[in-house]
Amino acid sequence: MPAFYRCILREQSEDGKTVIATYEPNIHAQGAWNPHEQHMAPASGIITRELEAFNPNEHLRIGRISFDIFGLISFDRFTIETRTIRPGKTIELIESTMKSQGKICIVARAWRMMIHDTSSVHGLEDDHVSTPDLLPAWNGMLRWSGGYIQSIDVRIGPNHRPGKGIVWVNTGVEMVEGESTTDLAHIIGLVDTANGIVPRQEGEFKWAFPNLDLQVHMHRLPQGAWLGLETIQQYGSDGVGLTSSVLHDIHGPFGRSEQILTIRPMPSENKA
């Protein structure tokens, strides 16, 4: 089965407080802005895989993951170093740092939170949306290039327009060669797609709008393979924008994501 990455080496410190994993990207991880970079979607998925696997505790689960993108994510061998920032019995903060070619690409921090039975006060305000089995396939993402875009199956919801819409995304590509992918890593590895599904520009892009971060908050863990993105994209008047999404799986809404955008004229050659 195809995979986004191949694991070269995984090492744990003697005290168990740090894990360093080395990976090589496959073509499916290739980015949409430049052929020599990785797409943030699978990059966030492989980091989530490391965060999820790091010293797990059955009484805690990930409630938020915050990714800060330091620059271009090189399409080259990279390492992910994971460690605990703030240990605790009820809350715990862990961090993964992705490096390639001697530079930091992404720093991600995840809050693990104690789980309880809160079914007596359970309540949601986000509505369910039509599931992907009821929606047509969409080739609108093919305006983007790169191996990641070629790897995804996309369905489009009604009333889709520039700046607002619902799109469902899935992929048959595993995160790591020879390993099964957890639902969490699989779905988080699709969330960054949100920034490309409702661009506020039609036809040829005159403005680039790469995101500098990805923030994911989850009131429950996602299940299954399909990710629904109920997305709004907004451009400010001074070069800053925002892509905001309600996140769905086939069972309903499970969280939200935000991406801050730097809006700049399209150069002749894209540079982060």
CATH names the topology as Porin
List the strand order in the largest sheet: 7-8-12-13-14-11-3-6-5-4-2-1-9
Largest sheet: 13 strands, mixed
CATH architecture: Beta Barrel
Q: How many helices in DSSP terms?
A: 3
H/E series: EEHEEEEHEEEHEEEEEE
Q: What does the overall shape look like?
A: globular
- The gyration radius over C-alpha positions equals 18 Å
Q: Helices and strands: which structural class? A: mainly beta
Helix content: 10-25%
The parts where pLDDT drops under 50 for at least 5 residues are: none
State the oligomer: single chain
- Mean pLDDT equals 96
CATH homologous superfamily - what is it?
Acyl-CoA thioesterase, double hotdog domain
How far is the N terminus from the C terminus? 32 Å
Q: What CATH first level would be assigned?
A: Mainly Beta
Topology:
Blueprint: E1 3-12, E2 18-25, H1 40-53, E3 60-69, E4 78-86, E5 91-100, E6 103-114, H2 147-151, E7 152-156, E8 164-171, E9 174-176, H3 183-191, E10 207-208, E11 213-218, E12 227-235, E13 240-249, E14 252-262, E15 264-265
